[in-house]
TrEMBL record:
Residues binding Mg(2+): 8, 10, 168-169
Family named by the database record: Belongs to the HAD-like hydrolase superfamily. CbbY/CbbZ/Gph/YieH family.
Included stretch of the parent chain: 790 to 1006 of 1019
Signal peptide location: none
Active-site residue list: 8 (nucleophile), 10 (proton donor/acceptor)
Feature type site, description Important for catalytic activity and assists the phosphoryl transfer reaction to Asp8 by balancing charge and orienting the reacting groups: 113, 144
Organism per entry: Dyella japonica A8
Binding residues annotated for substrate, in chain numbering: 8-10, 24, 43-48, 51, 75, 113-117, 144
Name of the protein: Beta-phosphoglucomutase
Length: 217
């Protein structure tokens, strides 16, 4: 039976996927690297270095380790500048209700965000106390689609992976959930989330009761 729901943050709970994208696009312009829909889709849900490596695949020149760190810091500066002014208004529709309905159903709640800015963002959104366990992205070695982050969330909650449901907006995240042995709910468009077990337009459409075993039924 279902015991926990593990949420991704960017693009599921908060409207930050577009902010990450805009920051990468600005950096791409500055270094003369191409940026298109394909690159944006591949970057989604992938950690900072993984995203930078995708951006640099078609950059006009190669970058050394120290330069890569500088580019990451520059992109993060653009991102943080925007989320500093975020508040509860930047929660995606239905996000708070969805998380609270999971709690009301007696399930545990985890956060599996690759973002090192997740603690700041949760604070700004005013929902940090709703989570039983938040994975520390800085301690995750392998980016989504590797299962490490969702497995770490399940372990932190003290729940076996097969009793968890994962919620994601990115293809890499859906693959991470599946590799962890969990059921994947995708948020967004079916064509972006082909492998998801169920696709909903957003958390506003999540009815957690549909996923909880009904002992009387
Ligand atoms: P940061 P999620 C991911 O968060 C974002 O989807 C992805 O675009 C970003 O590159 C990654 O976090 C790292 O974020 O640079 O803030 O550490 O979707 O896993 O919540
Ligand atoms: Mg995401």
């Amino acid at each position: 039976p279902l015991q926990a729901v593990i949420f991704d943050l960017d693009g599921v709970i908060a409207d930050t996927a577009v902010v990450h994208r805009a920051a990468w696009e600005r950096l791409a312009r500055e270094i003369g690297a191409p940026f298109d829909e394909d690159i944006a889709a591949r970057m989604k849900g992938v950690d900072r270095r993984g995203s930078l490596d995708i951006l640099l695949e078609r950059a006009p020149r190669a970058y050394g380790e120290q330069e890569k760190c500088e580019l990451e810091a520059r992109k993060n500066g653009y991102y943080v500048e925007r989320i500093e002014s975020f508040g509860p208004d930047q929660l995606l529709p239905g996000a708070r209700d969805a998380v609270e309905s999971v709690r009301a159903a007696g399930l545990r709640i985890g956060l599996a965000s690759a973002s090192r800015n997740a603690p700041l963002l949760l604070e700004r959104l005013g929902i940090a106390p709703l989570f039983d366990y938040i994975v520390d992205a800085a301690r995750i070695e392998r980016s989504k689609p590797d299962p490490e982050i969702f497995l770490a969330a399940a372990a932190g909650l003290g729940v076996p992976p097969e009793a968890c449901l994962g919620v994601e907006d990115a293809a890499a995240g859906v693959d991470s959930i599946h590799a962890a042995g969990m059921v994947a709910i995708g948020m967004g468009r079916r064509e972006d989330l082909g492998e998801a077990d169920i696709v909903l337009p957003g958390l506003i459409a999540l009815r957690i009761a549909d996923f909880v075993d009904n002992k009387n039924g």
